[in-house]
Amino acid sequence: MKKIICIGREYGSGGREIGEKLAAALGVPYYDKLLIKKTALESGLSEEYIARTEESPVKNFQFLSGNLYADMAVMNNTFYLESQITYNAEKKVIEQIGAEGCGVIVGRCASGILPEDKRLSVFIYAGKADKINRVSLRNGISEKDAAGRIRRVDRMRRQFFDFYSETPWGQPESYDIMLSSSHFGIDGCVNILLNSIRSMEAPVNE
Asked: Which CATH number do you get for residue 9?
């Protein structure tokens, strides 16, 4: 595969696992936590700082005064100082990866950064019950807490993607392929993507 495969995902959909298995099957690099480390090394930012601020909306509400216009300015500055610095660093690394050739990147708004001819954009979603069950088991929390975490994380991802991308998060116009892990399963999604990639790379009979 001579393109970067960019995987967006709902929280709890299994998108990360699909990305890992797909990269292994293709024999290409997988970028997730690896991307954080690469960004930290090349930008001088710590891994802890990047992990804390990436894909995150404004968090520092303790400075809000109650004045609408003043608070908007504070929130905008906070977002820029933390999220923007991290985004700029990761964007540079993603562009370098795109120039190098192939790999699988999960999240990080990669599909909004790389040009269409350089990437295959995928979105993984799942049914509510399946997501709650996966998050609950993975994190050892109640189903109620899992549901709340899913809402919060997906809200953050949507805000981040919509801020930096020209198309909306989780909507068909933003992706080449959208797959339900509830319907196809983790391995089924991997196989569909592998078959799609092979089909794209197959020579056209004249």
From this structure: 3.40.50.300
